[in-house]
Amino acid sequence: xxxxxxxxxxxxxxxxxxxxxxxxxxxxxxxxxxxxxxxxxxxxxxxxxxxxxxxxxxxxxxxxxxxxxxxxxxxxxxxxxxxxxxxxxxxxxxxxxxxxxxxxxxxxxxxxxxxxxxxxxxxxxxxxxxxxxxxxxxxxxxxxxxxxxxxxxxxxxxxxxxxxxxxxxxxxxxxxxxxxxxxxxxxxxxxxxxxxxxxxxxxxxxxxxxxxxxxxxxxxxxxxxxxxxxxxxxxxxxxxxxxxxxxxxxxxxxxxxxxxxxxxxxxxxxxxxxxxxxxxxxxxxxxxxxxxxxxxxxxxx
Length: 301
Fold this sequence. Notes:
Number of helices: 11
Oligomer: single chain
Order of helices and strands: HHHHHHHHHHH
Number of strands: 0
Structural class: mainly alpha
């Protein structure tokens, strides 16, 4: 009887302990991994956005650091594949948005910083290499087209419009200034007629494009001065040689007559080409008068 009583007490005690343990176990709060993941996700987004909001331009160190952190977090199990993809998209968007905003800022400034434009454009190329799908992004495409136009305008403004005549007396030919000037103004019209030119027309270095006509006029004067100098030097030298040969030859030497005829033909060719081909030759330029004088001198020999 005593033994039975002890057994019953043991069973009751054991049951009480088991009951308490069961209740305690059921009341213990479970770890909400979804909530923790969401909180971590939001915190990372804040860090990404915060990093870029503190920058005025593209920063490759920041971009690479953020991508490296995502890779490390994924490997450590802090974030899953879905979060990794979402956060990488966030990094790329924050980065390209910063680049686009910075470039648009510079396009709107008279003292546009060419180096900052190049920096942010290069940043866009880096982001697009990591996310090729962004190549069709409207903002990236538009700002890239404006930048390419800007570079073309700056290159045009920095050009020298000077050209060598490369005069050849033996053929009476030279480089045509008419063709050269026509090409320049076709390029000018192409730049000014671009619908995106309005986005950059307030930039000081872009405004130099309106000085093209004066630059062309200066180069044109230099061209015709050089053409006159080269042509006169050639024909004067030919006349000098002719005189020397005439002194040592028979008066009616057929070879001299032939040379004289050729000189007259060549000078005539030059004068005809000047009249017909050089549409932009200033009417007050002395090259025509010089060619007439040389013609008279040759004819009088």
